[in-house]
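Duplicate of #3305? Posting structure anyway:
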């Protein structure tokens, strides 16, 4: 008899991919008319421009487990070095090429050894790393950002999120997400997700006695 938990996990993975594809397509559309200067805008991802973050997303959608492991070994288990190497592979000679490479992987299901929900989180978080500095706003379906929030609140796999929110009670003002206990942090689900993943600027969109503690825990962001 099939294990119900395994069946549910497979179902959730299958459901994540259409959303990932939709979010990638929306991001590609948002970036279609950027100027050269806008492509060079510093992103919210430490040390990277918006163009470099997009190349990073392309790399993640082009890297299967075998290639990921080969890169880890090649970089002698220096994960930051591998990230930089893969980013450089996808950057291209000019912004138009960077965007075209990303468009090519919009419907890809290729991924490193991560769950599909982590790929959705990467797509939304890095999409905001790009959009926010450019003044681009996207209205995400609340059920999508809730799913991402629920993943991050229990995981330190890709980014320290679970550890960052220890001793805090997070409550979404626009959806059902809530987690933890302690000092209150409330606001839009997207802002909670971004603050959980270390983006201090999104603390400006939050309120409650725990906001400043959460802000103090935000720092160098993941890639």
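Output from current build:
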């Amino acid at each position: 008899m099939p294990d119900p938990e395994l069946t549910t996990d497979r179902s959730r993975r299958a459901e994540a991919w259409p959303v990932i594809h939709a979010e990638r397509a929306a991001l590609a559309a948002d970036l279609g008319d950027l100027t050269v200067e806008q492509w060079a805008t510093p992103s919210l991802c430490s040390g990277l421009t918006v163009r470099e973050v997009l190349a990073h997303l392309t790399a993640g959608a082009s890297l299967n487990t075998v290639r990921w492991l080969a890169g880890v070994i090649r970089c002698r288990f220096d994960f930051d070095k591998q990230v930089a190497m893969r980013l450089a592979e996808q950057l291209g000679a000019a912004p138009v090429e960077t965007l075209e490479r990303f468009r090519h992987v919009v419907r890809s299901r290729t991924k490193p050894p991560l769950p599909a929900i982590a790929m959705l989180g990467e797509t939304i978080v890095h999409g905001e790393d790009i959009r926010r500095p450019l003044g681009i706003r996207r209205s995400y379906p609340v059920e999508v950002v809730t799913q991402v929030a629920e993943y991050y609140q229990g995981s330190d796999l890709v980014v320290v999120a679970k550890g960052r929110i220890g001793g805090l009670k997070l409550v979404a003002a626009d959806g059902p997400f809530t987690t933890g206990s302690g000092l209150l942090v409330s606001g839009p689900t997207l802002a909670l997700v971004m603050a959980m993943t270390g983006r201090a600027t999104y603390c400006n969109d939050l309120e409650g006695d725990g906001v400043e503690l959460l802000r103090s825990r935000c720092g160098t962001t993941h890639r």
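Confirmed duplicate; merging threads. The longest strand covers residues 168-172. Residues 5 and 22 are 26 Å apart (CA to CA).
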